[in-house]
Specification:
With 186 residues, the protein is mostly helical. It has two domains: 151 residues, no CATH class; 31 residues. The protein is built from five helices and three strands.
C-alpha cells in the first residue's frame, strides 16, 4: 500500500523526481540515525544525509530543486509522521488522500521447493488470527493511527468500487428492460 505526504502550498505541476531511498535521515556516517527532537532541526545538521521526510520538510532551505510531495509505503509514512509529531509536537508534513495501489508484500520461492507450503501456512495463520492488525496497532502504522492526516475533501472522481457498482446497476437495469421488452412482445 502506498501513501503520499506533502508540504503545504506545493505546486502540483512540478515534475516527479526520485531523490532518496530512505525515509529517515542519517548522520554523515550513513549508518547512525539522526535523532529528531524539539531542539534538533535536521535541516541545519551539518553533513546529515537527508531521508525522504526531511527532503520534503526542509525543501529549498537545504535541497536544490526540492520535492514537494513524496510517495512511499504507508507503514513507513505513518510511522515517520507519528514519530516526528511525538518528538516535536507538530505536524511538519501531512498525508494527502487515501492510500493507493494496495498490493501487500510477497515472498518468491523457486518453483519446486518445500518452503512455499510452510510459508503459505504461516502467512495464512498470521492473517487469520488477526496478528497483522495487532502489529499495526502495536507499532501504530495503520492508516487509522495517522496523527497528521489532512482533512479530506469530497472529490468528483469515482473509486473502482463505485464504478463497479455503477456497472452492476446498469447491467441489471438493462437485463430488466430486455425482460420487460420480451414480456410486452408476447
Amino acid at each position: 500500500m502506498m501513501h503520499s505526504f506533502t508540504r503545504e502550498n506545493s505546486d502540483p505541476s512540478d515534475p516527479i523526481q526520485v531523490t532518496t531511498q530512505r525515509m529517515e535521515s542519517r548522520l554523515s556516517d550513513g549508518v547512525t540515525p539522526l535523532k529528531i527532537g524539539k531542539d534538533t532541526d535536521p535541516c541545519t545538521v551539518s553533513g546529515a544525509i537527508l531521508g525522504a521526510y526531511d527532503m520534503v520538510a526542509c525543501g529549498a532551505r537545504v535541497v536544490t530543486n526540492p520535492p514537494d510531495t513524496l510517495i512511499y509505503d504507508t507503514p513507513s509514512v505513518i510511522y515517520e509522521i507519528n514519530s516526528r509529531k511525538n518528538a516535536t509536537g507538530r505536524c511538519d508534513l501531512v498525508t494527502v488522500g487515501p492510500p493507493f495501489n494496495p498490493s501487500g508484500f510477497g515472498i518468491g520461492f523457486p518453483y519446486h521447493t518445500t518452503f512455499n507450503i510452510a510459508f503459505d501456512q504461516a502467512i495464512f495463520d498470521i492473517v487469520s488470527t488477526g496478528m497483522m492488525e495487532k502489529l499495526e496497532a502495536k507499532y501504530r502504522i495503520g492508516t487509522k493511527f495517522n496523527d497528521c492526516e489532512q482533512e479530506q475533501t469530497p472529490e468528483l472522481a469515482m473509486t473502482i468500487k463505485e464504478m463497479m457498482g455503477l456497472f452492476v446497476v446498469t447491467g441489471g437495469l438493462i437485463v430488466l428492460a430486455l425482460g420487460h421488452g420480451v414480456y410486452e412482445r408476447r
